[in-house]
Amino acid sequence: MRIGEVTARTGIPQRMLRYYEEQGLLSSERADNGYREYDHDAVERAQRVRGLIQAGLSTRMVKVVLDLEADCRATQPPSCTRGLAEELAAELHALDDRLACLAKSRDAVALYLSRSAHADLLSQ
Questions:
Q1: pLDDT digit string, tens, across residues 55-113
Q2: CB 69 within 8 A of CB 33
Q3: How many domains does the chain divide into?
Q4: Pick from 55, 102, 29, 74: which is nearest to 47 by CA?
Q5: Dist CA 36 CA 1 (whole Å)
Q6: Domain that holds residue 93
Q7: Residues 34 and 17 in one domain
Q8: Quick one: DSSP state of residue 30?
Q9: Does a structural domain hold residue 123?
């Protein structure tokens, strides 16, 4: 499928898909006319990339995570250096901190809304 179809299916702008490709996060083949051609797995992978980036991971760390996920699907245990494991552990702690912050923000918004005249919106 062409880049426009991937954009239509994912909502990810073409420019961002090209950036993902430049960063090695997404791949395509070139047709004879020069157009990018993506396989059907590209939609799921592009959505996964976007989700990881929105979660706060750098594109470098997204590549590491995607590569590790691919390794985990293989029959061999994933190879991981001590340095990479330390980076992943630091990223995990940073994600935990962000989750805690988001949970506090969510609780504050829910409390505010529950005390307002529009508390019924909480049940929706």
A1: 889 999 999 889 888 777 766 666 778 998 898 899 899 989 999 999 999 999 999 99
A2: no
A3: 2
A4: 55
A5: 8
A6: 80-118
A7: yes
A8: E
A9: no
Which single residue is written with the structure tokens 């993902």?
20
Q: Provide the whole-model pTM.
A: 0.72
Query: Is 88 inside any structural domain?
Result: yes
Q: Where residue 4 sits, what CATH number does that domain have?
A: 1.10.1660.10
End-to-end CA distance of the chain: 38
19 shares a domain with 75? yes
CA–CA dist 25, 101 (Å, integer): 28
Residues 98, 45 within the same domain:
no
CB 11 within 8 A of CB 44: no
Of 86, 33, 25, residue with least CA distance to 52 = 25
- CA–CA gap between residue 74 and residue 22 (Å, rounded): 25
Cβ atoms of 1 and 14 closer than 8 Å: no
* Strands, E assignment, 2-119: 29-30, 36-37
The answer to whether residue 124 sits within a structural domain is: no
